[in-house]
């Protein structure tokens, strides 16, 4: 029996490891498991929460947080008001949305209170846009034929196939659409939900214009005109204090108040002139 020299074996092993590494690099972005899709009754769109897998798969920045729009129904609410596939919905009705069903809960709750006009802060190609729409009870309660979502206008991204993705989750799309109706109905009448909605919106002044630029804060994508979009700004009114003590700029699970590297750029905040990675010198 011939025995290969040790050097040759080592070389073959190195080649195999290298080939495996290159194969890993060549895997398409969508090879990362993505969250299950959610069909929004309010927007007639397919949404997924932006978690680490979505951020990695679609090359999103640390600031682009919220709900990624994977597909929109032609002629539906999202399509009509200009929300595009690939956009990321960060806020609706002045509230941060990180769970797709939460968006529907907010809209449905306020529709039942007689409110039909809603605003959406959306990341579009790296910039924040503000969209408004009138959503009626009739529109919201119109049943969506979820068997057609695979044919909706969808997001095109290298390594991602919406048709394959929607086919993989076809059963779950139907099940979650049906079950979400009951979940939403029960959620919006809970004391906790009502208390939160009341506290979040009750004190808001629709005419407030922090930077006096003529655009009320509710429709302004940069309330304090500091060059940082509100969706990425921990201090929207420039009062020197964090608006939310749980603000987590890099979405690593550690609030900025306790994080030593807020933007996860490898430079400690003590030595970083741009803690939040927005390209603006924090010291002015």
What does this protein structure show overall?
By secondary structure, the chain is α+β, with helices and mostly antiparallel strands. The chain folds into 2 domains: 31-199, PDZ domain (Pdz3 Domain), CATH 2.30.42.10; 244-284, no CATH class. It contains 8 helices and 8 strands; from the N terminus they run H-E-E-H-E-H-E-E-H-E-E-H-E-H-H-H. It has helices spanning 6-26, 52-57, 77-81, 100-111, 137-141, 162-168, 170-187, 191-202; strands at residues 38-40, 45-49, 67-72, 88-92, 95-96, 117-124, 127-134, 153-154. Strands 1, 2, 3, 4, 5, 6, 7 and 8 form an 8-stranded antiparallel β-sheet that branches. Helix 4 (100-111) packs across helix 7 (170-187). The longest helix is centred in the first third of the chain and has 21 residues, at 6-26. The radius of gyration is 23 Å and the shape is globular. Mean pLDDT is 78; it is low at 1-30.
Summarize the structure.
With 284 residues, this protein is of the alpha+beta class. Helix content is 30%, strand content 14%.
At the first level of CATH, the class of the largest domain is: Mainly Beta
Write the CATH fold name of the largest domain.
Answer: Pdz3 Domain
User: What is the straight-line distance between the termini?
Assistant: 74 Å
What fraction of the residues are assigned to beta strands by DSSP? 5-15%
Q: What is the number of beta strands? A: 8
Percent of residues in helical segments?
25-40%
- What is the CATH homologous superfamily assignment of the largest domain? PDZ domain
Most strands sheet:
8 strands, antiparallel
Name the structural class: alpha+beta
CATH architecture of the largest domain: Roll
- Tell me the series of helices and strands, N- to C-terminal: HEEHEHEEHEEHEHHH
